[in-house]
């Protein structure tokens, strides 16, 4: 979740540094001092802007999450058919998983690391994951699936499981995410 821009305000710098460090190194492994150093702000400034580190975790995920989601979802106005839009998400995951920089899904990582479904950052993570499920449901509906909501949830499970597997194995998926998603689509929509 690295940003290519240099945010001007201390708040923006903290939000972007937090998103990057929490994703690369983990929430609990990233201390406040390291975070402030990366953002170029003092601890005093951080605590003036964010009541707690937990508040910063949630706000950084809320601020930077939409850009992460947007990178993974193809433009719905593209010339791709709904089935191809769904498979493009998995092809992108297959490609990303082969990179030595791949650290998994930041939303899934956050929820797993925090282990508290009521934590404000877990709520934000869940909302972002719902956007993926909603995307799958829209595409499945457009493709004529008999039960687009169930298919969307199944596809989300395949996505999350594939992302977790890539991190756990420390290796790329070699097309397995796309192959598995395609099998689910074949079962619901038939082959094309």
Automatic annotation (TrEMBL):
The segment(s) forming the HTH tetR-type domain are: 8-68
Keywords from UniProt, A to Z, are: DNA-binding, Transcription, Transcription regulation
List the PROSITE patterns: HTH_TETR_2 (PS50977)
* Top-level taxon in the UniProt lineage: Bacteria
Q: Which residues bind DNA?
A: 31-50
* Chain coiled-coil ranges: none
Recorded hits in InterPro entries, A to Z, give: Homeodomain-like_sf, HTH_TetR, Tet_transcr_reg_TetR-rel_C_sf
Origin species, per record, is: Plantactinospora endophytica
Give the protein's recorded name: TetR family transcriptional regulator
Keyword DNA-binding on this protein? yes
Note the PANTHER family from the entry.
HTH-TYPE TRANSCRIPTIONAL REGULATOR YJDC, TRANSCRIPTIONAL REGULATORY PROTEIN
């Amino acid at each position: 979740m690295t940003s290519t821009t240099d945010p001007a305000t201390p708040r923006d710098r903290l939000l972007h540094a937090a998103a990057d460090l929490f994703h690369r190194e983990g929430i609990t492994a990233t201390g406040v001092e390291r975070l402030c150093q990366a953002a170029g702000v003092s601890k005093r400034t951080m605590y003036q802007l964010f009541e707690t580190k937990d508040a910063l975790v949630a706000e950084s995920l809320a601020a930077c999450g939409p850009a992460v989601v947007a990178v993974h979802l193809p433009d719905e106005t593209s010339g791709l058919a709904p089935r191809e839009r769904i498979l493009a998400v998995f092809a992108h995951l297959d490609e990303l998983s082969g990179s030595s920089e791949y650290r998994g899904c930041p939303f899934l990582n956050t929820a797993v690391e925090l282990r508290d479904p009521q934590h404000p950052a877990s709520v934000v993570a869940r909302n972002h994951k719902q956007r993926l499920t909603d995307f799958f449901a829209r595409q499945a509906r457009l493709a004529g699936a008999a039960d687009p909501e169930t298919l969307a949830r199944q596809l989300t499970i395949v996505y999350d499981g594939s992302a977790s597997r890539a991190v756990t194995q420390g290796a790329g998926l070699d097309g397995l995410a796309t192959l598995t998603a395609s099998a689910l689509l074949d079962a619901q929509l038939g082959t094309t």
